[in-house]
Amino acid sequence: MKIASIDIGSNTVLLLIAEVKGSEIIPIVNEYRIPRISSCLSKTGIISEESITKLFKVLTEYKSIIDEHNCEKIIVNGTQALRVADNSKQILDDIKSQFNFDLNIISGETEALYSFKGALSSFTDNNNYVMIDIGGASTEIVFGNRSDIFFKKSFPIGVVVSKEKYLLTNPPTDEEIIIFNEKLNKIFNELAAIDFQNSQIIAVAGTPTTLSALKLGMEEYSESKIEQSIITDTDLDYFKNKFMKLSYLDIKYHYSPIIVGREDVILAGTIILEHLMNLFKTDKLFVSGRGLRYGAIIE
Question: Cα–chain-centroid distance for residue 198?
Answer without folding.
Answer: 25
